[in-house]
Specification:
Strand content: over 45%
Oligomer: single chain
Helix content: 10-25%
Number of helices: 1
């Protein structure tokens, strides 16, 4: 068997992952110093809902502006110190091992307030037919 079909399959799979990433988060929504890595996406037993897990890395001093999600977000800080500004609550700084729940549609923002890159594992339980992230002005 020729290695070309396998190589073609790998290229197509990579292209599909890239296209999903580009469609999930508009380029304008991702500032310099923010890296989002899609880890997994699965349909749920609830019709029209899906679970999405993303690793978000923030360079020192970088902020992700105010935004919402079409469902719940569950955050687990992996490394560093991140300040979360959740509408209706005082800002809170979380460190590695801390977790935060953000209700559906709640406006929030995040900023790396440490000296090193900070990382979080974000798990979203969201509507499938809506953008994962909407910026708020």
């Amino acid at each position: 068997m020729s290695p070309y079909p396998l190589r073609t399959l790998r290229v197509l799979a990579s292209a599909a992952v890239l296209a999903t990433n580009l469609l999930t988060l508009p380029a304008a929504a991702q500032p310099a110093g923010v890296t989002r890595t899609d880890l997994q996406r699965h349909d749920l037993s609830a019709p029209g809902r899906e679970a999405v897990q993303v690793r978000v890395d923030l360079a020192p001093g970088v902020a992700f502006s105010r935004h919402t999600h079409p469902g719940e977000e569950i955050i687990y800080v992996l490394t560093g110190a991140i300040e979360y500004d959740v509408e209706g609550k005082p800002p809170v700084t979380l460190k590695a091992g801390d977790a935060l729940f953000i209700p559906a549609g709640t406006v929030h923002a995040a900023k790396n307030v440490g000296q090193d890159t900070a990382s979080e594992l974000a798990t979203y339980i969201v509507a499938k037919d809506k953008p994962l992230l909407t910026l708020v002005k």
